[in-house]
Amino acid sequence: MNFEELYQELILDHSKRPRNFGPLPDATVTVKGDNPSCGDEVELSAKLTPDTVETLKFTGHGCAICMASASLMTIKIKGKSRQEAAAMAKAFRHMLVTPEETAVPESFGDLEVFSAVRRFPQRVKCATLAWRALEQALSTVPAAPVSTEEND
Ligand code: FES
């Protein structure tokens, strides 16, 4: 399967059958993200501990790129440390504004398909909608304080 086919298949599959879609009753934080250029909205709910993103789910509506990105994001981020989640969100948003020929980090896995969105700058907001909501959620609930034990 070439890259174009993989892109089509993953985006279609995850937009038609988004994973981790629905409410999360025991969420510790819920944030709304929107794309002002089209009015689409995603509501992201996450169960955060001081150190980890235990689980996360989303609801809302958006184009295929938006829904697929939110779906793949929940799979990628679930169970990650908050630090890793924040770093991945930053790296993902950064990747989308790099030139097309820039290599994508291996740690991206399936998220690599979104590198094709770099050809369509007007769709970058679609791909990053859920990720911006994740960053907002992470900043809303305080993370565990960084230990200063070694310095005491
Ligand atoms: Fe609305 Fe993509 S067109 S999020």
Explain what you see:
- The chain is α+β, with helices and mostly antiparallel strands and 152 residues long.
- It has a single domain (3-140), classed as Sufe protein. Chain: A, CATH 3.90.1010.10.
- Helices cover 39% and strands 16% of the residues.
- The protein has four helices and three strands; from the N terminus they run H-E-E-E-H-H-H.
- Strands 1-2-3 form a three-stranded antiparallel β-sheet, with helices on one face.
- A hairpin with a 4-residue loop joins strand 2 (40-48) and strand 3 (53-61).
- Helix 1 (3-16) packs across helix 2, helix 2 (64-77) packs parallel to helix 4 and helix 3 (82-95) packs antiparallel against helix 4 (124-140).
- The longest helix is centred in the last third of the chain and has 17 residues, at 124-140.
- The chain starts with a helix and ends in a 12-residue tail after the last helix.
- FE2/S2 (inorganic) cluster (FES) is lined by residues 35, 38, 40, 62-63, 65-66, 126, 129.
